[in-house]
Amino acid sequence: MSNHQLSLLGCLSVAAIITSAIAADAPKISAQANAPNSRAKSTPAYEIVDGLTLSTNPSFWFDIDNDGVKEWMYGPQYRETVTYKHDLYKFDADFKNQVKLPGSFCNFFDGWINYSDKEEIDAYSTGSIFDFENNSFTELLSVDKNISLRPLDFNNDGRPDFWKGKPYDSDNTSGEIITLDGNGKFVSEQISLLTPYEYYNQVITSAGVGLGSPVSIWSPPTAPRGANGNSFAQIDINNDGYMDFIDYPSGYFLLNTGDGRFVIDQFGGTVALRDFDGDGTNDVFLYDRSAKELSVQLQHGNGESDVTKLYSGLACSEPVWICDFDKDGDLDILAAFNSHDNQISGSEYNDTYLLMFENNGKGSFKRHEYFIEGKINFVACTDYNADGNYELIGWTITGKSKYENYKWIYPYAIWTCSLSGLKVNTKCEIAVNIESTQIRNILPANIDNSGLTRLVFPEAMITLSDAKNTRPLRPAAPKVNYNTATGEVYVSWERGTDKETPQLDLTYALRIGTAPGKGNLMYAYAKADGSRLNMTEGNCGHSTYRRLDASAWPEGTIYVSVQTIDAGFMGSEFSEYATFEKRNPAASFIVSSVEGPTVGDEFVLSLASPAVEGNTYDWSADDGKIEAKSDGSWLATFPTPGNKTITLTVTSAMGSRATKSRTVTVNGARVTCDLAFETYPDAAFDMDCDGKTEVLAEKFYEGDDEGNYTAVKRIFNSTISLYQPWVTDINNDGMPDVVTSNTHAINEGDKSMKIEEFDKNITLSPRAYDFDNDGYTDIYKDKIIKRNTGDYRTFEDVQIDAYVFMPVDYNADGLMDFVSTSKELYINKGGLQFEKDESFIIPIGKLNLQSCIAADIDGNGRPEIVWNKYRTGYGTIHYADSTHVMWSDGSATSIPAPYGYQFGGISEAFDFDNNGCLDVVVRLNRNQTIQIIYFNADKSYHTEIVKNVVYSSTFYKRTDGKIGMSYYIVNGPGNQAPSPPTGLRASQNSKHVTIEWERGTDKETPATGLRYNISIKHKGAEGDGAYFMSPLNGGINGVAVPSGKQLLQGPKITIPLEAIPAGEYEVKVQSVDMQYQQSDFSETLTFTVAASGAFDLPSATMVGKKETVSVYAGVNPADIDFGEGAKVLSLNARSAEVCWLTEGTKTVKCGEFSSNIHVHPALNASFAVPGEILLGTKWIINCDNAHNSKWELVRYEYDNHNFFEVMDIPQNKNYDFRSIDGNTVEFTFSGYAWTSNFALRHTVSEDYGSDVFEVTPNYVAMNSAPGLSIVEIDADGHYLLNWAAPAELSQMITGVKVFRETSIYGQFEQIAELDAQTTSFADANSMPSVKSERYAVTFDLPYGETKMSTPHRPMHLMINKGAGNTWNLSWNRYEGRDIASYRILRGTSRESLQLVADVAGSNTSYSDFQAPAGECFYAVEIIADAPAMMSRMPSRAASYASRSNVVSTNDAGSLNPVTSISIASTSGDFSIDGTEVDALQLIASVLPAEATMRTVDWAVVSGTDVVSVNPRGLVSALKDGTATVRAASTDGSGVYAEVTISVSNLSGVEEIVTPADAAGQQNDVYTIQGILVKRNADSNDIRALTPGLYIIGHRKVLVK
């Protein structure tokens, strides 16, 4: 296939290529036109060579021995080993015969490739990578046979990586790539793939990264999708300078966001991307097969597009050729409508037509139609006679086929059709007649770099002309710009020139190496003289620029050259070299892990390039641990989930240094499949109580220590099939039994079950619950609770007032309540009596519930309601767009369905990531797909889609120690067993027996989130009937609680007296955490249930609290012994008032009757108060924060000689609290001036009592905020931080902490802790010559600390060569201070810098047109006034100065200036309607694509009171009106674009005049579009926000 074809439109599938390559016996070839009905004179062939076995796939050809002649792989041939064999061939000296080389390739061969720095050729196949040496293939890596390896340069270092995709899977979203590391090993690496929804709604955290260009926001043309291809091409789809990847036949593409992430999406059909209108932006040619329609979508720089339908009606053949046919400087389109592709019926085919679409240069096309006689099928377009015009090559079948030697042989005529510019000579000629197997591809081939074009068929090679194509002219040296801050190299070059091939049809290859002539960094697939080694496009395609990541390249001189490649695959000489000095060592590294790594999983860190002797490699990784391995790699593990930053700092022997950071996501859990069972388990329990859980999946399975499960070897197990089982205790012997609709399986121990079947089928409810606490499991259905009579066969109907939908112990009293289908809560009052709670409501509208669960998500002891509007019925299914959480405090969270999905039913809650919060499983509307919603204690969440899951709610601990979910494994952090409950006590009153205990504790699950498994046993009893309430695990420590068992939600159970017979009982309880891990049982409590009582008293109280004891009729209160420590306050006829002065469980007696009350220590809400607190600082309060703790700021007013409390002041305006632990809380007050009318109130409460403490602290205002003064560069070349404290803080500071921002925007890590007297700090790890850093400080105080200061980021200066003797400077703004102007310094040495210009503080670029000859040095400087009223001021000056890094003209890269800028918005227009949104995201398109500096400065040039714009192009509305926003280039070109923004219907905005006014807040911050910016943002986080509109604390807030 020739270069100028739409290469991937022309690619057949692998299967087609294989079919076309099947060899035949020696074909019969003639030069005579003996085809029937021939209408053209036969032209004798120049040369014919037959009897060959050739490949028509250009990827199979390569000059492996560098002799100038290309060898080829041929195959497949079917062999007895049922594999496909490829053999390697070469031509003899006169091209008359082929020679088979030793070494067969028994696999699907895909192509030749250079993937290392050895400048040697190797090979790859669909699922393997090979080393090729001495004509021998050695497999280095093999992947799953269903995986396709595709070479793509994902990390942009110039060498190919391999994407592991599923080529025929319509849901191809694999994020794994294979990369060769510095140790020469292939390692896998996960890349982040975004859906379009995630991409369009992302938070932009750094200017110029993350949104690409306006073309990024296009809507890809839609049509039925093609089959997912397996041959991706590399092209800059959206003109942002980063290489994207596209599979042209299917339309699948990966859009490179420039920050290591890719958007995966698909165009609606077969596509090609070329610039049809000459605006520098790639446009889209689309062929929609289903509609038989050709169209062009012109993409404009402002994000708009125009679609032109070219033709519809006939099936377009592939390939389509996009070339500059008339050589007028624009791209025309030639489409063939071949006879073979337009069958009418039977063997009748349509005629052949050619459509030439003439481009007028602006993307408008004029159609020229040509009828071709002879029903020819055109498959190739090439200039085989080197006359500067293209010719078409096609075929027809001229007669009947015949079957010879197990092959079908067809008679073919090979036709040629000449073009003259846009004109097609419709009088085609037969070049040759041939008998052959199927011909689908014809390859025009430049085999020996002579310029002679030969036509390659499967069994023959034909030369139609002896004219030779000349090679292109040698191009000029490329321009190279190296950005030391980002590590990126930007290379651009001028278009080449060729005698025969039009300029737009040329492609280009870069060669980059560490020495002249070397291509060890980027391989050009050419010899040193430019002779091409293959027959494919250059490694840069038609582009004239390439952006590369040089962080993996070694220190030293880098040599860059380019060559031009014409349509006949002739390569020019390489250009002169452009060089640049890389003055820091290679620091790039690879992070390899399992898919979805979780806590404890290992991240393997390996260098991307070979380690250099003498270099040191230092790692850091947030809270992770990094250990070196003996093989030259490192292992990193993390104890907590979240986004983690791994940083490598490399220091060379010469002292130069480089850093590279990667952000990895550590998940809380990962679900993997273990198909050990015949079907998915419905239940899990320990049959023989040996500490190893068996599972029930129709039959029983047991596991070994490695987690291998096999069927239990018992006779009963060979015949049973137990469907939809309940696990319960049928005979009350403490052991787990099984109930199904018609079967009892009674546990006999030793993994043996007694099977009892009965005729009457029982309709079991989905879950088993004991509603009346009589020890037997009941059934619920509609408005009936079927009470179990005790035999698990007979059930009595009890009518209730509502349809039971969701049982839940809502008030944690141990009695099962329920939520009805009509969304009402019914509280169990005992005896199967339920009372409606009128205050409860689920805001679902008129719809009845069908998908809802109740679970204590946040572990606070009170259940949340999770619901969505999924429903089924009457043969229809309604899926939901959102799932909702109604939190126990009355707030709500709505979770949208993932992009491309809808929610089905809500299945279960389980703490997958073991963070102390239950996570929720929701089914999705695709088969066997679920979403896990991972919750955090602050109500935030993240989600994960898990595919191929047949979900069940069976969670259990496997025998290998892992968590099982049905037949899946939940991989996650380790789990520690909770502690057992303590302090068991029992009490009895006239209605109930109450058993209570002190909560257990757990490392991961909050104490209030623990659940409990209770065992109540008749004293001394064993065997059948021994248990009143069965624990279902024999009451044995170490035996798991069966999955799905009804657990108690709180530390008590209430048993109605009518449910429990009088007598003596033994009770013990075990804690169960959110991962169903049980504790040991508590100590056993023996208690007696009396037939009648004497008094009622509460089950618990606290020391010193007065309690009223009700006395039964006929009982004298004076006869009651209230126990040790009791103080009787009063006695009445039917009551007594008592308090207890000591803690502990007290036994209260009257005659034979006794009951217990537990006396807790008195609650204490008090805390110490400092003598003076500065406004806006953090006050660390030591107090009782373990119990239910409530903090309020109240205000009093004085009226009529009395103080009275007024309404609470909203938290988000004045103060915030942050709970640190059970003994500590952090309080910050700000917003209003503090007065004596304010009081801080702390309330602690439990069911048994409460306490309140209230105080008015002495708050003092600060005159100025503490923080950094300036960041500069010290004499050693490091960043030096300077700070000063306000006078009122000077005597209070006890220490200083210094923070530096990580690679995640807004996330800081502490780098130093200093004494109180220190006023500066030099960051020895900083490299101002490479990049700038962001810093902040805090000051320690006797009672807490100040909030983090406003971050400072100094300038980083870069230099580029402009036209003539012009030098272009650019820098980032100094962040942290208002800068009025920047001072431009210049000198002939680093020490002689002098002021040459002042520019306004709004500028970040300067062009020096008057620089003297010779080397010049530059820096940028700011001078800022020192703040007033500072103590401990640096003595050096009354003003602060900060100077950037110094740059030299000798280090300047070549500048490609910006020529135009256009602006687009993600919404498609430039209006803000306040009824819908309050902000607008703008995106600037910078042209040309090869412009060196593509960043822009955003500014409001008029209407500053109407809108504001942040450095990332986000426009926030301030009021109704119009404003003009400008995007200006930063390269000194002076180019800019402006748009007018209109704002209307704006309302509801609360104004924060300055960020300081937001001090004291601690709320989540969202963009106006609802995208999370910062979790738990405090006042300093608010200060760090760029001006604009945000959602803060559920308010729309304008930050100025």
Describe how the helices and strands are arranged.
Elements: H1 7-10, H2 14-20, E1 29-30, E2 47-50, E3 61-62, E4 71-78, E5 84-91, E6 98-100, E7 105-106, E8 109-113, E9 122-125, E10 128-133, E11 136-142, E12 148-152, E13 161-165, E14 176-180, E15 186-190, E16 192-194, H3 196-200, E17 233-235, E18 244-246, E19 252-256, E20 261-266, E21 270-274, E22 283-288, E23 293-299, E24 305-312, E25 321-323, E26 332-337, E27 343-345, E28 348-349, E29 352-359, E30 365-372, E31 377-382, E32 391-397, E33 402-404, E34 407-420, E35 423-424, E36 429-436, E37 443-445, E38 454-456, E39 460-463, E40 479-483, E41 488-492, E42 507-513, E43 545-549, E44 556-565, E45 578-582, E46 589-592, E47 603-607, E48 616-620, E49 625-628, E50 634-637, E51 642-651, E52 657-666, E53 670-673, E54 683-685, E55 694-697, E56 699-703, E57 709-711, E58 726-728, E59 737-739, E60 743-747, E61 753-757, E62 779-781, E63 784-788, E64 795-799, E65 804-808, E66 817-820, E67 825-830, E68 833-837, E69 851-855, E70 864-868, E71 871-873, E72 876-878, E73 882-886, E74 892-896, E75 903-910, E76 919-924, E77 929-935, ...
Parallel strand pairs: 16-20, 91-96, 97-105, 113-122, 124-130, 131-135
Antiparallel strand pairs: 1-36, 2-39, 3-4, 4-5, 5-6, 5-7, 8-9, 9-10, 10-11, 12-13, 13-14, 14-15, 17-18, 18-19, 19-20, 21-22, 22-23, 23-24, 25-26, 26-29, 27-28, 29-30, 31-32, 32-34, 33-34, 34-35, 34-36, 37-38, 38-39, 40-41, 41-43, 42-44, 44-45, 46-47, 47-50, 48-51, 49-50, 51-52, 53-81, 54-55, ...
